[in-house]
Here is the input.
Amino acid sequence: TGVTCCPSRTGFMTGLSTARFYKYPSAYGFGNHITITELLKKSGYRTGHFGKWHIGPKNKTSNGTYGIDVIDNGKGGDISLYGRDAGLVDAAIKFIKKNANGDKPFYVNIWGHSTHSPVKPHPNFVKPFSNLVVKRSDFSKTMQTKFNKCESVGGNITAAMKQYVADVNAMDKNIARLLKTIDDLGIRDNTLFVFTSDQGPGKINDGKRKNKNKNKQKQKQKQKQVRVAEAHPQNMVGYAGTYRGGKHDQYEGGVRVPFIMRWPGHIKAGVTDTQNIISGMDWLPTLCSIAGIKDIPKKLDCEDVSDIWFGKIRPRTKTLYWKTHSNDPSMRDGKWKLHFKTKRIKGKKIKGKKISYVELYDLSVDPSESNNVADKHPKLVKRLSAKLSAWVNELPKKYFDNRDRNRKK
Here is the structure.
């Protein structure tokens, strides 16, 4: 749904693109838009949310927000045994045990921090990978850029990879704890368990930030402080395979993520679906369909894909669009991926001027989006561009800026 935390979570919770919100949901929430948790709550579910939030003001977050009975960021827990998500998984397990055999069904969000920056796992998780050695030739061309960046900020790619896979290993152990809890409680057969990611792997951050302070000495000091605060940026070596980009990018490396389900007797085990196209936004209507909830919003950016979850192969009925308050828009229609791009030209009189251009990729033969074929398909570009432009025209013309509150009109 999105290529950073809030846009992705907005899609899961509302079935809407974050680009439709005049005020960024991370700070201002969803307004009058109903959420999946509210719909399930009204239908008799006990609801819980454990871990990262990023979908509204923290100072207004309490049990009951968005129809969620229990909200817990899960601080604490034994990180030496279960990593940085130990506390939130502990809290989720407690909630599941309390509601497993009650008179109401339950729904749980478990939004962990692995493998979000900064990656600094407990040494216990690094030890099993002491013999790991990274062979650069095993990785795609796009990954070489990330390796180069790692080294440019003082990192060692083998050491960085040990840290990263250790963080993944800690996440695996927490998922195992959740699955075991469900099995031990005897609710395996009537519990749908889903593992997915909000977006592709994060980038390596060099620790620098834009600073408009004209005093160079203060600017250097600020950058030094930022570097200290953002420890271990070189450990962000998550791998998107052949796919281009990652977090912050609307290329496939940013939007194509794992989606793994377990529901014995309903979802066939051991099947890998490489044909269907689904989105995080589909979460709301799909779960409502499964739960028998009929009264859902009419205007959504998504579709019910429960039939796909249960094994059907079919074309997607709704085009997928991506945009945040600041990103250029992109779309996917069948096998075609179209990006609107703006390029800043550095020069004399045209410095800072934005020049628009288009990228078109056939994902059926070019999933790495390395061969722009826009010039070869002018009619297709015209048709898809019209669709993307029409969608953009539905969005707010201008987005709320916090700085506007301090400006005289």
